[in-house]
Design goal:
Low-confidence stretches of chain B: 328-336
Structural class of chain A: alpha/beta
CATH class of the largest domain in chain A: Alpha Beta
Largest sheet of chain B: 8 strands, mixed
Largest sheet of chain A: 8 strands, mixed
Shape of chain A: globular
Distance between the termini of chain A: 51 Å
Number of helices of chain A: 11
Number of strands of chain A: 12
Number of strands of chain B: 12
Strand content of chain B: 15-25%
Strand order of the largest sheet of chain A: 6-7-8-3-9-10-12-11
Order of helices and strands of chain A: EEEHEEHEHHHEHEEEHHHEEHH
CATH superfamily of one domain in chain B: P-loop containing nucleotide triphosphate hydrolases
CATH architecture of one domain in chain B: 3-Layer(aba) Sandwich
Number of helices of chain B: 12
Oligomer: heterodimer
Order of helices and strands of chain B: EEEHEEHEHHHHHEHEHEEHHHEE
Strand order of the largest sheet of chain B: 6-7-8-3-9-10-12-11
Distance between the termini of chain B: 37 Å
Chain lengths: 349, 336
C-alpha cells in the first residue's frame, strides 16, 4: 500500500499554560510529542488510548483545527501546516470531522436542513435552495434518516439520530478524509452498533479514508484496517489490526487488551492489571513514558526513550524489550504475570 | 430457606400528575440473598438507577411516588418514617456513585469526609476516626494513606477518587453496597483496577453488592446474578452464566450480539433497529415490541409475564419464553 493519502511527520503540540493568578508560570503540557504516521487511501486507522494520551489533539492537528507546535502534515503533495488561511479553507472540503458529543456539536436553534446544508453553501455546491434541499434529502437517506426530518431541530432527535446528522454533514462534500473523535462513546450499546455499521458502509461506498479515535480496543475491532495505540502523546504501537490484536508487542497494548471486560463470565484470561494512574501530560516521565506502570520495566527504560521501530512485518513498536525479544502474546502475559508476582500483588488487600 | 437480605416487590415509581402519571418503574421484582452479587444491566432510561435510588429512598417526594415493597432484612423500608432512613444509609446500605468528583465535597479533606460517615454511625474519638479513615484508604490501595488524609478531592485522579468513594462506602461495613456505574467515568486500565478492588472488598467484608451498569462486560466480571431492565421493566433475570450463555429475551440476545468484542472476526456488528424508548413512554404490551425481530400481535397488547427458562433463569417474552400452558412456537429465523 503505497497509496498514502495523508501523513504526519514529527507532529507535536505543546499547550503552554499562561501564567496563573499569582503570576506563577504554569507547566507546559506536551499533548502530542513527535508523532509520525500515514493514512492510506480507503483505509481506516483506529487511534486508541486513554484520556490525556493526546489522541483527540492529534486528530485535530491533522485537520488544523488547532495549530501544531511543530511538524508537518502532508496531503496532496502539500504541507497543510504551511498553507495560508485561504488555501487551507479550500482544503477543508476534503477534510471533515465528526465530533464525540452529538448533543453539544449541533446548533440547537437551527434546522437539520440548515445544519447539513451549511458546508454546501460555503463551497457553493447546489446553485439554488431547492437543489440543496434535494442534496440534503439524499444525504439524510444515506445515513438512514427520513428526509422528512429536514425541517426539525436537533432537540427532537435521540443521540444516535444526532450522530447520524453529524455524519451526514461530514460526508456532504464528499471528503477524502474524515476524522471521527469517539463518535459512539456517548451512545447506548444497542445504538453504537448501528453507527459503527453505518460508518463502515459509508466508507465502503464512498471510499474516503478514516481516522477513528476511540478509548478502548473493543469498539474498533470491526472497523479498523490498522490500529495505533497512543500513550502520553506518543504512538507506542501501530500495525495491521490482526497483528495488534493477536500479537501485541507493547506491554501497554497488552494491558489495554486485557483490561477490556468481556461479556462472558467464563472468560478466563491472564489479566494484566496496571498499577498506578496515567501520569499527567504536564509531567511526562523521562525515558520510556510508560516505565512507571510497566510490568516488565528494566533500568534502560527509565533512562532511554525507545524509538518506534518496525518489527519487520509492518507492525511498529516503541519498547526496548519488545524489540529485543519479540514475544508472542502468551509469553508476554506470562512474563508480566511472573513480574507482578515478584513485586507482590496489587493493592493492599 | 433463609430470608433474603433484600426483597423488592412490585416496585413502581411514578412522576408527573396523578391523572396522567409517567411510570418510570413498572412492577420491579427481585430478591437478593446475603453475600451475593447482583448486576442490573440496561441502557439509558431503563430504570436501573431509579431502582437503586428507590431502594435508598432517595427519590424526591412528592414529585416522585414510590409504591410496592422494599424489604431489607425483613423490614419494609417504604414503611419507615423518613427520619429513620439516614440511620440505614451508610451503615446498612451504602452507595457508590458514578461521578466521584461531583459526589465528593470539594472543600472538605478526604480524611474528614470519610470520618464524617463514621461519626454519624459510630461514636469514637477524633483521633481514632482519623486512624480508621487511614486504615480504610490503605484497604482500597491508596498509597501513603496517612499522608493523603488532608488532601482534597481535586488533588486526586479519577481512579483514586473512586477509591476514596469506595473507602467511604465501606466505612461502616454495610451489608449491602449499591454501586451505580462505578467505573463508567474511568479509563479501561483504571476500570480494571477498581473492579478488582471491588471484588476484593466484597470477599473480605462478605458484603452483598448490587452493581448497576450499562456495560455487559463489567456485569459479567463482577455479578453472579443478572437483572436485565428495559424501559422501566425487568425483562430477564438469572444466574450470570445462564444469562450470558443462554440469553432468552430478544433484547438481551440483541444487546449481547451488538457488543463489540476483542476476539471475534465478524465483519459487521449485529444491530438492534430503532432507539431506546424513554421510561414511561410504553403504556401497553411488551416494551421491546417496536424493535423486536420476533414480535407478534399479542406482544403489542399484553406485557408477557416472567416465565422460567430454567431453575435460576426467567424471562418475559411471549415468543421465546411462552407460558407453559401454551404450545411453544417454533421460531423461524432465530436471532442467534
Amino acid at each position: 500500500m503505497n497509496d498514502v493519502l495523508i501523513s504526519a511527520r514529527n507532529l507535536g503540540k505543546t499547550f503552554s499554560s499562561a501564567s496563573g493568578l499569582l503570576g506563577r508560570k504554569g507547566r507546559d503540557v506536551r499533548a502530542v510529542d513527535g508523532v509520525s504516521f500515514d493514512v492510506h487511501r480507503r483505509e481506516t486507522v483506529a487511534l486508541v488510548g486513554e484520556s490525556g494520551c493526546g489522541k483527540s489533539t492529534l486528530g485535530r492537528l491533522l485537520l488544523r483545527l488547532i495549530e501544531a507546535s511543530e511538524g508537518e502534515v502532508h496531503y496532496m503533495g502539500k504541507d497543510l501546516l504551511k498553507l495560508s488561511r485561504e488555501q487551507m479553507r479550500a482544503m477543508r472540503k476534503d477534510l471533515q470531522f465528526v465530533f464525540q458529543d452529538p448533543y453539544g456539536s449541533l446548533s440547537p436553534r437551527r434546522t437539520i436542513f440548515e445544519i447539513i446544508s451549511e458546508p454546501l453553501e460555503v463551497f457553493s455546491v447546489g446553485k439554488t435552495r431547492s437543489q440543496r434541499r434535494e442534496r440534503v434529502a439524499q444525504l439524510l437517506d444515506q445515513v438512514g434518516l427520513s428526509p422528512s426530518f429536514m425541517d426539525r431541530q436537533p432537540r427532537q432527535f435521540s443521540g444516535g439520530q444526532r450522530q447520524r446528522i453529524g455524519i451526514a454533514r461530514a460526508i456532504a462534500l464528499d471528503p477524502t478524509f474524515i476524522v471521527a473523535d469517539e463518535p459512539v462513546s456517548s451512545l447506548d450499546v444497542s445504538v453504537q452498533a448501528q453507527i459503527v455499521n453505518l460508518m463502515q458502509d459509508l466508507q465502503e461506498d464512498k471510499g474516503f479514508s478514516f481516522l477513528f479515535i476511540a478509548h478502548d480496543l473493543s469498539v474498533v475491532r470491526h472497523i479498523a484496517d490498522r490500529v495505533a495505540v497512543m500513550y502520553l502523546g506518543r504512538i507506542v504501537e501501530i500495525g495491521p489490526k490482526a497483528m495488534v490484536y493477536d500479537t501485541p508487542h507493547h506491554p501497554y497494548t497488552q494491558a489495554l487488551l486485557s483490561a477490556v471486560p468481556e461479556p462472558d463470565p467464563d472468560a478466563k484470561k491472564t489479566q494484566i492489571i496496571l498499577e498506578g494512574d496515567v501520569p499527567s501530560p504536564a509531567n511526562v516521565p523521562p525515558g520510556c513514558s510508560f516505565h512507571t506502570r510497566c510490568p516488565i520495566v528494566q533500568a534502560v527504560c527509565r533512562r532511554d526513550r525507545p524509538p518506534l521501530l518496525d518489527t519487520g512485518k509492518g507492525q511498529m513498536v516503541a519498547c526496548h524489550f519488545a524489540e529485543a525479544h519479540p514475544l508472542t502474546k502468551g509469553e508476554h502475559a506470562d512474563l508480566a504475570k511472573t513480574r507482578l508476582q515478584a513485586v507482590g500483588s496489587t493493592g493492599a488487600l | 430457606m433463609t430470608t433474603p437480605l433484600l426483597r423488592v416487590e412490585d416496585l413502581v415509581v411514578e412522576f408527573g400528575p396523578k391523572s396522567a402519571p409517567i411510570r418510570v418503574l413498572e412492577k420491579v421484582n427481585f430478591e437478593m440473598m446475603s453475600g451475593s452479587s447482583i448486576g442490573i444491566v440496561g441502557e439509558s432510561g431503563s430504570g436501573k438507577s431509579m431502582t437503586s435510588l428507590a431502594i435508598m429512598r432517595l427519590i424526591p417526594e412528592p414529585a416522585g411516588r414510590v409504591s410496592g415493597r422494599i424489604e431489607f432484612d425483613g423490614r419494609n423500608l417504604l414503611d419507615l418514617p423518613k427520619k429513620e432512613m439516614p440511620r440505614i444509609r451508610g451503615r446498612d446500605i451504602a452507595m457508590i456513585f458514578q461521578e466521584p468528583m461531583s459526589s465528593l465535597n470539594p472543600v472538605m479533606s478526604i480524611g474528614d469526609q470519610i470520618a464524617e460517615g463514621i461519626m454519624l454511625h459510630e461514636s469514637m474519638p477524633r483521633e481514632k476516626r482519623r486512624e480508621k479513615a487511614a486504615e480504610l484508604l490503605r484497604l482500597v490501595g491508596m498509597p501513603d494513606p496517612m499522608g493523603r488524609l488532608d488532601s482534597f478531592p481535586h488533588q486526586f485522579s479519577g481512579g483514586m477518587r473512586q477509591r476514596v468513594m469506595i473507602a467511604m462506602a465501606i466505612a461502616c461495613n454495610p451489608r449491602l453496597l449499591i454501586a451505580d456505574e462505578p467505573t463508567t467515568a474511568l479509563d479501561v486500565t483504571i476500570q480494571a483496577q477498581v473492579l478488582q478492588l471491588m471484588k476484593q472488598v466484597r470477599k473480605r467484608l462478605n458484603s452483598s453488592i448490587l452493581i448497576i451498569s450499562h456495560d455487559l462486560g463489567v456485569i459479567a466480571d463482577i455479578a453472579e446474578h443478572v437483572i436485565v431492565m428495559y424501559a422501566g421493566r425487568v425483562i430477564e433475570t438469572g444466574d450470570s452464566r445462564s444469562i450470558f450463555r443462554n440469553p432468552t429475551h430478544p433484547y438481551t440476545r440483541g444487546l449481547l450480539d451488538s457488543v463489540p468484542r476483542l476476539k471475534d472476526d465478524r465483519k459487521r456488528l449485529h444491530q438492534i433497529p430503532g432507539s431506546v424508548p424513554l421510561a414511561g413512554m410504553i403504556r401497553q404490551g411488551c416494551p421491546f415490541y417496536a424493535r423486536c425481530g420476533l414480535r407478534m400481535d399479542k406482544c403489542q397488547q399484553q406485557m408477557p409475564p416472567m416465565q422460567s427458562v430454567n431453575s435460576t433463569h426467567n424471562a418475559a417474552c411471549w415468543v421465546t419464553a411462552p407460558p407453559l400452558d401454551t404450545p411453544r412456537l417454533v421460531v423461524a429465523g432465530e436471532m442467534r
